[in-house]
Amino acid sequence: MQTPDFPSQVNFVVCQLFALLAAIWFRTYLHASRTSSFIRHGIATLLGLYLALFCFGWYALHFLVQSGVSYCIMVIIGVERMHKYCFVFALGYLTVCQITRVYIFDYGQYSADFSGPMMIITQKITSLAYEIHDGMFRKDEELTPSQRGLAVRRMPSLLEYLSYNCNFMGILAGPLCSYKDYITFIEGRSYQMAQSGEDGKEEAQCERTEPSPNVAVVQKLVVCGLSLLFHLTVSSSLPVQYNIDEHFQAAAAWPAKVAYLYVSLLAARPKYYFAWTLADAINNAAGFGFRGYDRNGAARWDLISNLRIQQIEMSTSFKMFLDNWNIQTALWLKRVCYERASFSPTIQTFFLSAIWHGVYPGYYLTFLTGVLMTLMRNNLRHHFLEPPQLKLFYDAVTWMVTQVAISYTVVPFVLLSIKPSFSFYSSWYYGLHIACILVLLLLPVKKTQRGKSTHENVPLSRSKKSDGSENSLGQNSFSTTNNICSQTRGTTSRHSLLKQ
C-alpha cells in the first residue's frame, strides 16, 4: 500500500543509489593515491550539494547557510568561545527550520523534509567546534583520552569544512563521523592502522595492503534488500496507530495488547535498518569506514556504522538497546553534552536529544519516559547479578520486559501529537511510568567506589557485549586516527523514508 509520501521515498532511494554508484567511481578513479586532497574535497562537496538540490530544491540553501555562518563564527569569535556560539547557532537554526516546516507548512507531513540533512550537519558543526576548542585552546592534561584523540590542532579551510559537512556520502542520511577520521580518509591514510590485542589495546603500528570493501558492501546491501522487502510487505499491515484504535482498546485482552505493541514497533524498525545500512554501505563503497584489523587479521568496515541489528533485537536492557541503536548520534550526545555537563548529565543529554530530533510533542514524551526507564534500570539490575542462575533467569525475563518497555516508550515518537500519545498511555494506565517511579523511590541506588550513584556513571561504563563499545550514551570512539581496531531516531534523515 502506498503512503502519501511514497514519491519522496522513491526520491530518497534513487538519490542514495546514485550516491552508491558515485562512491564506487570516487574510490576507483579519484583514489587518494592518484588524486590530490583538494580535488577529492571539491568533488565530494559538489556531488553532495547536487544530491541535496535534487532532493530538496532551493531548501538545500539552508545547508550552505548553516555551514557558512558557523564557519564565520569559528573564524571571527576565536577558539576560546566559538564552540558555545556554534552550538547555540547550529541547534537554534535547526530548531527554527523545524518549527517553520512543522507548524507553518505541513504538520505531520514529511515531503521535502530538508531538516533531516540539517540534523546531521548540526552534529558535525557542533562536534568539530568542540574538537577545535579542545585541540587549540585547552591543555592536553585537561582532556579525557577520547577528547585528546579527537582534538583538532588547526583550523580547517572553508573547502575542508564544506566537504566534511556536505559530502555526497553522508549528506542525505549521515551518519556522523569525526572530522579527523574524514580527513584521514580523504588524504588516504585510513589504512595505517594499529593491530589490536585481546584487551583492545594497540600492539604495533602497521601498514598493510589496502583492503577491498566489496564484501562488506555486498553484505550490507543484502541487509538493505531484506529490510526494504520486510518494510514494503509487512510493516504497512501492522500500523502503530492501531494501538490507539478505540475498538482494539476496548475489545482486546491484555496479552493481545502487549503482543501487538511489540510486533507493531518491531515492524517499524526495518526502514531504519534499510536507511542506515545503505548509508553505511555508500561510505564503505567510497573507501570510508575502515576500522583496522581484528586479531585474526580480518578487515573491519564498521567505523561509522550506526546500528547492530542482532544486539538490538536481543537487548536485555534499555541501555543495551541504546548502545546499539543510532550509535553515531549517541556518540555525539556523549561528546558534546554528557562528558561536559556540570550537573545531571543523563537528564541534560536526553533533553538535548529531544530538541535535536524536532519540535513534535511526542518526541519530548518519549525522551522523558526514556529518562525514567534508564534510571530505573540502574536501581534494579545489581540486585539480580548473583548468583549466575538468577542472572540467567533475569536476562530471559528482561529481554521480554525490555522489548515491551522500548515499544511503550517510543509510541509517542511515532504518533507525534499529544492527544494520541496520552490516549495510548492512558489505555495502559501509565503502568510502566508508575513502575519506574516506584522502583526509583523504593530501591536504593548502587554506589560506586567514589560514592557516586550509578545514575551518573552507567552511561560511561563499558559494555563487554558490545565489542569494546561504551554505554547508552555513546560507543567507544572508533577513530582511525586513534588506531583503535577492536547510539528513537537520531542521525537518520528526517526525510520521509526515515519517519516512523
Descriptive key words:
mainly alpha; two-stranded antiparallel ribbon; 21 helices; 2 strands; acyltransferase; transmembrane helix; MBOAT_fam; transmembrane; endoplasmic reticulum
Description:
The chain is an all-alpha fold and 500 residues long. It has two domains: 6-207, no CATH class; 214-498, no CATH class. It contains 21 helices and two strands. The protein has helices spanning 6-29, 37-56, 61-77, 82-105, 115-136, 145-150, 158-166, 179-186, 214-233, 246-251, 254-268, 270-285, 309-313, 318-324, 327-336, 345-357, 361-380, 388-415, 418-427, 431-442, 454-457; strands at residues 192-196, 202-207. Strands 1-2 form a two-stranded antiparallel ribbon. It starts with 5 loop residues before the first helix and ends in a 43-residue tail after the last helix.
| Unreliable residue stretches | 194-205, 448-500
Shape: globular
**Extended strand count:** 2
Residues in β-strands, percent: under 5%
- Helicity level, as a percent range? 55-70%
Q: Compute the average pLDDT.
A: 83
What is Rg?
22 Å
Count of alpha/pi helices:
21
Straight-line N-to-C gap: 16 Å
Overall tally of structural domains: 2
Q: What kind of assembly state do the chains in view correspond to?
A: single chain
